[in-house]
Amino acid sequence: MTDSAKRILVLGVGNLLFTDEGIGVCAVDEMERLYDMSDNVTLMEGGTLGTRLMDPIMNCDLLIVLDAVLGDGPPGSIYRLTGDDLRKSMAFKDSMHQTDLVDTLIMCEIVGHRPDAVIIGMEPSDYHTMHVGISEAAKERQAALIGFALEEVVKAGGSYSLKANPGISTLERNSCA
Predict the structure, then answer these.
(1) Structural domain boundaries, residue 95
(2) DSSP 3-state assignment of 112?
(3) Is the CB of residue 134 less than 8 Å from the CB of residue 176?
């Protein structure tokens, strides 16, 4: 990585225990399985960690968050959010888990570094039912969600390549099924 390369953090957030609220975590897990990323790109499952994500967020220049987004579209709709639209992302709403991510970004700015942020999100089908695994609608659109995230990575100066032997899909092997 060159000194001028943007440090990119792709952060999957959400709660795997509430069906499609775990869309972002499942997407990053699938990206880790399928792709090798350039040295300036970090993939991270952030879950519901809130302010505990400050260190990795402060150590990037661009934050790409993958999450469930309430945008009033049909389930599986994909959105790109920046600026004032960030609070449409479920992680950027007040939550029972801790503070929301907008507050976390504000705290990062107060202590010295707030990266640029973009949300790539998907309209959930069900985020109220306690169930480990994403809905069929989310599974069908996961590749598209990941594709939009990869576009953001490339626009910011990162790169990726498909792994030769990616292994068994997360959707087939564990809680994201």
Answers:
(1) 8-160
(2) coil
(3) yes
